[in-house]
Amino acid sequence: MPRLKYASILRVLLILGLFCIWVQIMLSATTGGLDKDGEELMNSNETSEQVLALVPPELHKYLTVHPKNNSANATERYAPKNISDILRAIQRVNDAQTIYNEDVFGPVQNDTIIIAIQVHTRLTYLRHLIVSLAQARDIDRTLLIFSHDYYDEEINNLVRSIDFTKVMQIFYPYSIQTHPQEFPGMDPNDCPRDIKLEKALKIKCNNALHPDLHGHYREAKYAQTKHHWWWKANRIFNQLQCTSTHTGPVLFLEEDHYVAEDFIHMLNLLRNTADKTCPQCEILGLGTYLKTYQYHSTSDKRKKHLTLNYIQQVRAISEERRKRQQTQWNYQVYPNLYSSTQKVEITPWHSSMHNMGMAFNRTVWENIMELQDQFCAYDDYNWDYSLLHLSQNRPGREKFKVILCKGPRVFHIGECGFHHKKSNCNASTVISKVQKLLKDAKSYLFPPRVTATITAGGAKHNKKLTKGNGGWGDLRDQELCTNMTKIGRQLKKYIYYA
């Protein structure tokens, strides 16, 4: 009997143990799902019925996720591929310089509005950007140039399915995807980001002598964004055959932007207003950041915490963290922004305020190119802060001036991805709010005229940059950046497929 009783106890313990292991595996899987990269989370989101209800049925095709491309296969886009094949495909596309739908909408003219869209891997956002572009008036008179730093057939098929205007694809040829074990990717012998200089010199890692101004070593995924933006601008202004004599505006968007249906109308109004009242305005701005939150500023919280004991401080910080997690993304339609007479502002350009939906022409690009060494040498991995540094250090010239819409026509919908790793991010939630905003503001769109006000900008935004954000101390990054400007215009190669 004791032996049987002992065996029964062992069986119970074994069953309990197996059950605990199963629970642990399930919890790990759930936690792993919550810790997934924001891009994967966002790409696995389905488009909600609320969002679809505000999209014309004929445009649902751009939001359709086919069963073979569902979340079960989402990781395939990140799986190892034949790099040689990808490089050949990239070169083939870049050489061909194919303009899709040119036979339907006519050739690119010197004053055609070019819309340059920087694309990484956030497919869901890209779908909605395309839907918003499709609904814009006069979109058929533009050229969309999608600039990719990741080669993916699902993204390519989506872009090439666009039938409402002319489309071109260009591929950044120095990406992490195509250089995973070497610069500009991460060489195995590159210095770890946080290693100290003395240890880096001791182990003789590749870039030991060149940490950034904060003492950190390069991270390829951050450096790539600035490289890609600079390469894309050089490619469009200096290398493509169809833009060799182009003098019109180039509007810079990203995959997680969303446009209003009158954004082209407003861009033209800004151009005309600048010609009449602000010939020195070099940049046109269609987007402004109008996020609103329901909690106090950091400085107020710090002052409040000083009067609390330790336990109270911990509780206060926990409560603020809880409130931040519950804070909802919120755009407000301010009556003074969207009115029958639209307001525009003329002010010094600042990177953190005016980097979204910005446009400029070849003349401005040539001014930037005169100071290309400053852009490429500035120790900041952000392309917009590098432009701000260039703007603030133009010999004998004022800073860039921007004329911008007070009521934005370009919105940032990217709550998940590159800089945001939220476990609860849902693209549909943000997109539906932008759609509702534009629906509420519909009667104010397409204004016949605008009124401009001139402002000097706030003290914070006029403060001269003393140093960059780092991430760009590696001489290899600076050299690659500089070399991108030395590539001349490439003859279009006609490629015939069997």
Written overview of the protein:
The chain has about 500 residues and is an alpha/beta fold. It has 19 helices and eleven strands. It has a nine-stranded mixed beta sheet with strand order 3-2-1-4-8-6-9-7-11, sandwiched between helices. The chain has a two-stranded antiparallel ribbon with strand order 5-10. The model is unreliable at about 25-45, about 70-80, about 290-305, about 325-330 and about 415-425 (pLDDT under 50). It folds into two domains: about 40-290 and about 330-485, Alpha-Beta Complex (Spore Coat Polysaccharide Biosynthesis Protein SpsA, Chain A), CATH 3.90.550.10; about 290-330.
- The CATH class designation of the largest domain is Alpha Beta
- Structural domain count: 2
**Through-space gap between termini:** 81 Å
Number of helices: 19
Q: Specify the biggest β-sheet.
A: 9 strands, mixed
Query: What form results from the Cα inertia axes?
Result: globular
Kindly estimate the percentage of residues that lie in beta strands according to DSSP: 5-15%
Q: What would CATH call the architecture of the largest domain?
A: Alpha-Beta Complex
Number of strands: 11
For this structure, what is the CATH homologous superfamily of the largest domain? Spore Coat Polysaccharide Biosynthesis Protein SpsA, Chain A
**Protein structure class:** alpha/beta
The Cα radius of gyration reads 26 Å
Overall mean pLDDT score? 82
CATH fold node name of the largest domain: Spore Coat Polysaccharide Biosynthesis Protein SpsA, Chain A
Q: Which regions are unreliable across 5 or more consecutive residues at pLDDT < 50?
A: 26-45, 68-80, 292-307, 324-329, 417-424
SSE order, one letter for each helix or strand: HHHHHEHEHEHHEEHEHHEHEHHHEEHEHH
Q: In percent, how helical is the residue content? A: 40-55%
